[in-house]
């Protein structure tokens, strides 16, 4: 099954989550706000590395201490930088040396051999295990649930049974593959376009529906690159590329053989697919997709769009599916401009073979044990347990249904009330801060306060299932294959999105999984979401003191609110439309302050990683604002304990880094956890008085270099 937005869903252009981030283009990954849109995940995407976690570098200092060796980060010999001293062992750290090490030393020692582990991955593993057991019990009848959850549980069990099968049912998939293979020219592609787009099959283009950036109550079509989930190997000459291609040629024939292709034909298909994938890569520019959405809105009329293509005819598809559409946004202008060269008549067979291979790769699970074994080293998700894969697939299709179930069974009213109170107190303090702000003009304060007062707060999970998430009309046959079930879901979603294209978009819909250990701010809705999955130990416990609560979940809430006023979120108005309401003078002052923050983080060295202050600016602004406002509220408590507050904050981002984790952070929007904690605290004056930190201490930062924006 394609991920939800792989077919035409897009209720959100941009969603920001709270910690480690991933930009996904919809493909069996968490879509949060749906569809093949850029999704900026914020804080708690697990730090589990994409590569083996063996650290290839061991220093002499590390060898000398077998207990702490995995935890010591060698810092280059440079002048004192923000972030503390990383040339010490956690067990000997003091607040003056390295606060992250000082607070988390016991946890770091416990997990010393678990590179890639952090608080959030541990929480999510626990949640996933519980959900897997619940779904299994519900499907077998050992646990009761409503009909929607029972349907999701049956899907989970069907998917899991397929993965475990030595003789899976591939007949429906085989039939679709044969139909693709039988295409003779572009006229065949054109006549089958609606079935391809709304079904479970890949095309070298994607047409989605999304809210209009400047008027999110209305929808607009978007044209972008390829609907395939998993990328094919590249034609690169480096060792990794060669090794991946070797695995591709060794294993993919096993699956094509099951589909009835002979060895010679398969080799030709595999060759053509790589050539076409390379052609797409060389004639597109994904860097434009992730830019500020206001960078350049490439909008063309439907008639100009339809006339742009030589061989591919979108006229009938758009006329039938979206007859009211008047224009379309071009996600990647480079791809659009080169499209006729990519899909030229001489390239038809290559395109068709790319479709065959990408469909087989994306639907490997329908081949059962053989399929998983074949793509083990080609598809990242295939390295997960069968239960984990089945849960991820179920989450892709039944996210809102599972979210309602999880929240109802894992969040009590007492916790909800406490979090609601925290949110109210933090928003109130934020308003006070804006009133006292020294750099905003009066009109600027009015605009910020107006937006702050209209932020929609969602806590826990959805309370109802409606619209495109309501699968009650879908009847699954027990005798059908998992592929058949996926097609039913995809076709239903595609038809629903087509039907709803002209309706006014409903705001406040729950789009984030309630079982995520995460939180988000959605600028296109001006909303924050605090899901039930985040409200568990160690981030939240009913037994925690108020000081601890504000240092932990309170700072997270403040972080999400601050995203409304970071370098990206501040360009959306109170209704979530892309409209900069600030004056030129206010924007200039804000840019001046944020440049100080860029300079503060830029160039900080952490083991293999060098921080990029511009790349991480939005998250650093949110950390700074969230920590300040949470501290402000906490200090008003009669029993406030500063050490409890700061230590709870430092425990939020506990993690065991390593080479591959740090490599991921090199392109991430977030500062790596240890640096993230220490530098955020170095900007807080109360932190210095609480721990008697003085000039010359590694955790000291001169007052002139401390930054506060909100």
TrEMBL record:
<feature type="signal peptide">
    <location>
        <begin position="1"/>
        <end position="29"/>
    </location>
</feature>
<dbReference type="InterPro" id="IPR000718">
    <property type="entry name" value="Peptidase_M13"/>
</dbReference>
<dbReference type="InterPro" id="IPR024079">
    <property type="entry name" value="MetalloPept_cat_dom_sf"/>
</dbReference>
<dbReference type="InterPro" id="IPR018497">
    <property type="entry name" value="Peptidase_M13_C"/>
</dbReference>
<dbReference type="Pfam" id="PF05649">
    <property type="entry name" value="Peptidase_M13_N"/>
</dbReference>
<dbReference type="Pfam" id="PF01431">
    <property type="entry name" value="Peptidase_M13"/>
</dbReference>
<dbReference type="GO" id="GO:0005886">
    <property type="term" value="C:plasma membrane"/>
</dbReference>
<feature type="compositionally biased region" description="Polar residues">
    <location>
        <begin position="34"/>
        <end position="43"/>
    </location>
</feature>
<protein>
    <submittedName>
        <fullName>M13 family metallopeptidase</fullName>
    </submittedName>
</protein>
<feature type="domain" description="Peptidase M13 N-terminal">
    <location>
        <begin position="95"/>
        <end position="462"/>
    </location>
</feature>
<dbReference type="GO" id="GO:0004222">
    <property type="term" value="F:metalloendopeptidase activity"/>
</dbReference>
<keyword id="KW-0732">Signal</keyword>
<keyword id="KW-0479">Metal-binding</keyword>
<dbReference type="GO" id="GO:0046872">
    <property type="term" value="F:metal ion binding"/>
</dbReference>
<comment type="similarity">
    <text>Belongs to the peptidase M13 family.</text>
</comment>
<dbReference type="InterPro" id="IPR042089">
    <property type="entry name" value="Peptidase_M13_dom_2"/>
</dbReference>
<feature type="compositionally biased region" description="Low complexity">
    <location>
        <begin position="44"/>
        <end position="59"/>
    </location>
</feature>
<keyword id="KW-0862">Zinc</keyword>
<feature type="domain" description="Peptidase M13 C-terminal">
    <location>
        <begin position="518"/>
        <end position="707"/>
    </location>
</feature>
<dbReference type="GO" id="GO:0016485">
    <property type="term" value="P:protein processing"/>
</dbReference>
<keyword id="KW-0378">Hydrolase</keyword>
<keyword id="KW-0482">Metalloprotease</keyword>
<feature type="region of interest" description="Disordered">
    <location>
        <begin position="33"/>
        <end position="69"/>
    </location>
</feature>
<keyword id="KW-0645">Protease</keyword>
<dbReference type="InterPro" id="IPR008753">
    <property type="entry name" value="Peptidase_M13_N"/>
</dbReference>
